[in-house]
Amino acid sequence: MNYILDYDKVLNILNNMKNLRKMKSINTRMGYEVPYYTYGKGKNHIVIVGGTHGSEIISVDFVLKLMDKISNKKDEFNDLDENKFTIHFIPLQNPEGFIISTSVIKTLINDTMSLDEIEKVCKDYYLKYKQDDINVKENKGNKEIKLHQQMFIDTNYECIPKKHEKIRESVKEMYKDERLPKGSMICFRANASGIELNRNTRFSKGLKDIKEKKEVYGLNRYNNIPTTIKGPLGIPCIDVNNFSYENENILLFDLLEKLYCEKKYCGCILFHSTGGEIYYKPIFESYENNLRVEEQEKISNKNLELALEYQKYTEYKLTDNNDKEFNSFDGYLRTLYPNILLIELSKMGGNPLGPYGDIKNNYIPTINDNLKATRNVIELMINKTSI
Ligand SMILES: [Zn+2]
């Protein structure tokens, strides 16, 4: 069985989860329901999110495994008392971007291949992606097609199954004038309207760049992909002169706000894919914020406590300053609510395939260590940090 997920496999896995409650959710612009489930009957509520970026398969993979373990009380989760907590799972926040990235993967990886063959393709991708970063360091101005993009050079909207007609049309439109490099659909981080959910705030630096008609590109190996037009890396919102949140974020925002106002909120963990990092520190000065200093300090201290607990099991580095320029959505949430962690999972980089490039030494320990870390952070959120 091919372990690289796609949209249909995710839906299948979710349909087979018996102990979870399927909740009323929201649809994306193109009509895809954002899967939302809960488990537990306690008064301490925790929110867990994966798949914010379409190309970050391992984050979806991880949250699905977490849902299975928690709701079936498996292994390290067998002594967590579901009468004490309620967990809200949003395992695939960006179904559209996920459909795009995983459709591209299928042009190289399919269910008839052996697991060894799949691992080899992923390893090859990982190495090329890494080499692309090295090459950009040596020659910053080089915007040629990257090695990892070369692997998917012939892919276009046609690799997306016909049943996803709106997504196909939108991708076709984005790529028609060739400002986006060939092969770059593999890293489709945005939703199918070309909006990057984690830059979808009024404070995003990208809004200014677009208004000032700057030419800005992605970092490192993405230095040939513009971030000021709709595309795989995405722009902050659909109309830069009239800011709006995407439905995928409204779901999360409304949920956190409701739980917080009802005094049920305990914390939120957002899972991303690569880097082996823990983002925990709120940068209040990056966002309009009217919290008093004492309250700001209280939030900072709580977040640090949780981040240190998470670090015990993963040895991930605590990242506290990358956010200043970028002004991300998770950074914004962190200034509004305490106990928001963003975890970058795999130490092996290269979305979407890199994390699967070494199953024994990267993928399996990544999943296992993060399950342990999450279990212990959940316990800490429930017992010690109730708001
Ligand atoms: Zn991400």
Protein model, in words:
With 387 residues, the chain is an alpha/beta fold. It folds into 2 domains: 219 residues, Aminopeptidase (3-Layer(aba) Sandwich); 126 residues, no CATH class. Helix content is 40%, strand content 10%. It has an 8-stranded mixed beta sheet, sandwiched between helices. α9 packs antiparallel against α12. The radius of gyration is 20 Å and the shape is globular.
Concise overview:
This protein is α/β, with parallel strands linked by helices and 387 residues long. It is 40% helix and 10% strand. Residues 52-53, 56, 272-273 line the site of zinc ion.
Describe the secondary-structure layout.
Blueprint: H1 7-15, E1 21-22, E2 37-39, E3 44-49, H2 57-71, E4 85-90, H3 95-105, H4 115-138, H5 147-150, H6 165-175, H7 205-211, H8 247-261, E5 265-274, E6 277-279, H9 293-314, E7 317-319, H10 323-326, H11 329-336, E8 340-346, H12 359-383
Parallel strand pairs: 3-4, 3-5, 5-8, 6-7
Antiparallel strand pairs: 1-2, 2-4, 6-8
The chain binds zinc ion.
